[in-house]
Amino acid sequence: MALRIMVVDDEPAVLKLIKGLIEQLGYEVLAFSDSREAALRINAERFDGILLDGNMPHLDGFALTQKLRSSPANSSVPIVMLTGDGDAETMRKAFKAGITFFLSKPVSLERLSGLVRVMRGPMLKERRRYARLPYCTKVACRSGTREFQAQSVDISERGILMEGTDGINRGDELGLGFVIGPAARIVRVQANVVRKEASGRIGLEFINLDAEARVAIQNFIAGRTAG
User: Fold this and answer.
1) What are the backbone dihedrals phi and psi of residue 32, each rounded to the nearest 5 degrees, phi first?
2) Which of 59, 127, 134, 159 is the most exposed place for a label (fewest CB within 10 A)?
3) Domains of the chain as residue ranges with CATH
4) What is the pLDDT of residues 163-192, one digit of tens each?
5) What pTM does this model have?
6) pLDDT for 42-99, tens place per residue?
7) In contact, 209 and 189? CB cutoff 8 Å
């Protein structure tokens, strides 16, 4: 699946140019000329990267960046600010707002493609953090003095979805043990129940992952989302 990039610029000609250049590089692009509409979308869905203009009406690039950094789905997404103001004060203000990269206008395919290549690593890393992969395995669970066995449904770098967990509710903390990856690495981790579905499935978020467990899960996810 192609990486998804949001582009926001109030100048239609510039927006069309940047959208076309990024699409030439093989990315899916959602373009917005109104920063208010872009602000609504960042609260509703994830993007792998954001390119935005610094000077826009309504919400300028600095305000939109701050909204992105406070958005649960896009708080750590790579952000590029595009602007004709390349002075030191503008750059200082932009980085303080939370941008990742700064690119001065006018934008060429050569300069933009170089920047997107640099962004690709961070974008893939972010996608892996949120990617949920089907993964069915037995999970040994412990809740206080109670021990039982459940079944995983899917997994991400942040947590796991399980079923067969009667009596477990949102807010509970569980100790989990399961096998992952072709090397059958045993992972033991604590997790908090952050949601419970009507079907009885529970979504858990990993807490206090040790280095070995983190690497095992990351390698498993990376091996199936590389691209």
Assistant:
1) -135, 130
2) 134
3) 4-130 (3.40.50.2300), 133-225 (2.40.10.220)
4) 999 999 999 999 999 999 888 889 999 999
5) 0.62
6) 887 889 999 999 989 999 999 999 999 998 778 889 999 988 776 788 888 888 999 9
7) yes
